[in-house]
Write a structure and sequence with these properties.
By secondary structure, the chain is α+β, with helices and mostly antiparallel strands. About 40% of the residues lie in helices and about 20% in strands. The radius of gyration is 34 Å and the shape is flat.
Length: about 700
């Protein structure tokens, strides 16, 4: 029975995209002219693995394209070709092209053949240039003759290869390994079938064979070992050196007899475009695909899986302990009541720890979001003739996978803005006594149950007067209005607002900033700006660690319960009549110290019948969202707890002022308030009091 290798496609694509990240990072760190051999070797190994894996699975266009990259890298690492800026740039373009080819193979979508051809032609042009392996026809003929002469004298390798019984289950096929060995020289294969069971006892997914291989070649042992690197822990492998001579080309009669008895497969040494490298076995690792596309799978480190299994074991023990109690409640004495109480306490603790373990499975280091920026900075600096150093800290700070995928685009926009309009040109920096090279910093850390991401630059900073004048020109503020710095910087998040004198195809500081803030708010986060003219700008993003669980305050309005996110609550207070003010008989304001905040009557907003409708003596929950405050009028505060968020839009429909729902311990459904949306909604609602027709949602 043949093994369906398509089951390993997902693992292949994940590891290939990881390999592309390794290649890109290594190329960006290469020193022109005198490159580090370790760096080039790591880039070469990544390319070699992608080529072999793609050939194994029949992605021949990927394998053929990667072959050119591999050849160029091989010449760099053996010293026959210098590392030039042109070569590095071409290889970076090839990485981009290879990423598109792999994505097209994964998603079964068409590729841009013209772009592939252009990049492939650039590779061939470099390979055919002086300093490479194809210097001239005369040299080619000389090399070919030299190779022919050396075949009769070159050394070779004797290989004993015995797979463990379960090696085939990982998708590794010995025949494909032998084909790759055949590319290194003249290969003779002798199979040992002595361990092969009878047909009735044979398991088609287990390996019973072993092989004696003779490889006539002058390559180093490292290249031979590299063929077996995917199965090194799943086989017994012995490699010993042999010295070939003219007489060695003929096998002894003893060897020929053994061939006749056991069977010999001579594999052509001609390069094969079909199968060259095995896919690595599906393992557990902390890394995940670095592509920003949403993935249906996630790869998890083994320690997190072990912790989860241990917690499940603890739950089983607790369930067994509770199950031993007699369920006859008519004769349930105090001693068993005490055991039941202890069991329930333990069950609560184990459930909480299990929940935390499960949530940790979804957590990935933010380096997956940061890794795209070195390449971006490199490319844009070349395009803009700027000098910029990118510094990253806190790369191991973990964030929920879903949040990670959605924060990528806002981060890209902010970094591009800093590159394009934040950091000045080198000459302009020199004139202001700054170093020619600007600095952009990406920093991530945990704080108060949230993750904080900072994007700093030491560029020109915001010109507050220019922002204010632009706002006056657009009618956003009046000319005599006095604004604090925070209010001025908040103007850049208005749709289409920009102070850039020239808009480029890269960005325009302010253009699209409303989209950035909206995307961050949709994740339950917010963004703040601080800036000093001539010194630089800092964007601070605050995000929840996960979108699945929320710390909330339960509030009661009539017979309904709502969840208010704790992160949005400023304070709770009892209303005093003397602090209530009315504006035009519609808007009600409450004075909190030196600030006036609008009162949101929750029962009117959601169409709920309540017994008490007067404000005096009522409870006001002061919340803040998007820099604005409001007071939510509620009947009672019930307590705080973590709740699991369920999508209301998926299960019902989108409701303004509500971000989701949750199921409480008694089985009832409670709505989770969208504080930002609720504040905006209350400001836009001018319906008279007690008008159920204007309610957002009539809660049944």
């Amino acid at each position: 029975m043949a093994i369906d290798i398509t089951q390993f496609h997902e693992t292949f694509f994940e590891e290939s995209f990881e390999g592309l990240d390794i290649m890109e990072s290594g190329l960006l760190n290469l020193d022109i002219g005198a490159a580090d051999n370790d760096t080039i070797n790591s880039i070469f190994r990544a390319a070699h693995s992608i080529k072999g894996g793609s050939a194994t699975f029949g992605f021949t266009d990927v394998a053929e394209f990667t072959h050119g990259m591999e050849t160029l890298l091989d010449e760099m690492r053996d010293g026959t070709r210098d590392v030039t800026q042109k070569s590095v740039d071409t290889l970076l373009q090839s990485v981009d092209c290879l990423r598109e080819l792999l994505a097209a193979a994964r998603d079964k979508t068409p590729v841009d053949s013209e772009r592939v051809a252009v990049v492939h032609k650039s590779l061939e042009k470099i390979l055919s240039s002086e300093g490479g392996s194809n210097i001239s026809t005369e040299n080619d003929e000389h090399n070919e003759n030299s190779q022919t002469e050396s075949i009769s004298e070159r050394s070779g390798w004797k290989i004993n290869f015995k797979p463990h019984h379960d090696m085939l289950k990982t998708g590794n096929d010995p025949v494909r390994m032998f084909r790759e060995l055949s590319e290194l020289g003249e290969l003779t294969v002798i199979v040992d079938i002595s361990q092969l069971p009878t047909l009735a006892d044979l398991d088609p997914e287990e390996s019973y064979l072993s092989w004696d291989l003779t490889l006539k070649t002058d390559v180093e042992i490292d290249l031979v070992k590299e063929v077996f690197e995917w199965v090194i822990d799943e086989c017994d492998l012995e490699i010993s050196e042999i010295v070939s001579s003219t007489d060695d080309t003929a096998m002894s009669s003893e060897t020929q007899d053994r061939e006749n008895e056991q069977g010999t497969e001579n594999i052509s040494s001609e390069p094969s475009s079909q199968a060259k490298r095995q896919v690595a076995k599906p393992g557990v690792t902390e890394k995940s695909t670095a592509s920003t596309d949403s993935s249906a799978s996630i790869r998890v480190s083994i320690d997190k899986v072990d912790a989860l299994i241990n917690m499940v074991g603890e739950l089983v023990i607790t369930q067994s302990m509770i199950g031993q109690l007699d369920c006859d409640f008519d004769d349930f004495d105090n001693s068993r009541m005490e055991k039941l109480r202890d069991g329930l306490t333990l069950l609560e603790r184990n459930t909480r720890e299990l929940q935390e373990s499960v949530m940790r499975i979804r957590m990935l280091p933010i380096s997956f979001a940061f890794n795209r920026f070195p390449r971006m900075v490199h490319d844009l600096c070349q395009k803009l003739d700027k000098k910029i150093e990118l510094r990253t800290t806190g790369e191991n700070t973990e964030l929920d996978k879903t949040v990670m995928e959605k924060i990528g685009d806002p981060l890209v926009h902010l970094v591009r803005n800093s590159i394009d309009h934040g950091i000045e040109m080198p000459q302009a920096r020199k004139e202001t006594n700054k170093p020619e090279t600007g600095v952009i910093e990406l920093n991530a850390f945990h704080k108060g149950g949230n993750i904080i991401i900072e994007i700093k630059d030491d560029g020109a900073g915001f010109n507050k007067d220019r922002i204010k004048n632009k706002a006056i020109e657009r009618g956003l503020i009046s000319s005599d209005e006095h604004l604090s710095d925070d209010k001025i910087y908040d103007l850049i998040f208005q749709p289409g607002f920009s102070t850039a004198e020239q808009l480029s195809d890269i960005s325009g500081r302010g253009v699209g900033m409303d989209v950035v803030r909206r995307n961050i708010r949709e994740l339950g986060g917010n963004i703040d700006v601080t800036s000093e003219e001539g010194k630089g700008t800092t964007f601070t993003i605050r995000l929840p660690l996960t979108l699945a669980i929320l710390d909330g305050q339960l509030v009661c309005v009539g017979d309904e319960i709502f969840i208010t996110p704790l992160v949005s609550i400023v304070e709770s207070l009892q209303i005093k009549k003397e602090f209530v003010n009315n504006i035009a008989g519609q808007t009600e304001l409450y004075k909190v110290r030196d600030d006036y905040i609008p009162i949101v009557r929750m029962h009117e907003m959601f169409g709920i019948n309540v017994e008490k409708k007067s404000l005096e003596g009522g409870l006001l929950v002061v919340v803040e969202g998007d820099g604005k405050k409001a007071g939510l009028l509620v009947d009672e505060l019930l307590g705080q707890q973590q709740v699991v968020i369920k999508s209301l839009e998926t299960n019902y429909q989108r409701v303004d002022g509500v971000s989701g729902a949750t199921i409480l311990g008694d089985g009832t459904v409670a709505l989770i308030l969208d504080v930002d949306g609720l504040i905006d909604l209350s400001r836009n609602t001018s319906a008279p009091n007690n008008s159920p027709d204007n309610s957002v949602l009539a809660v049944a």
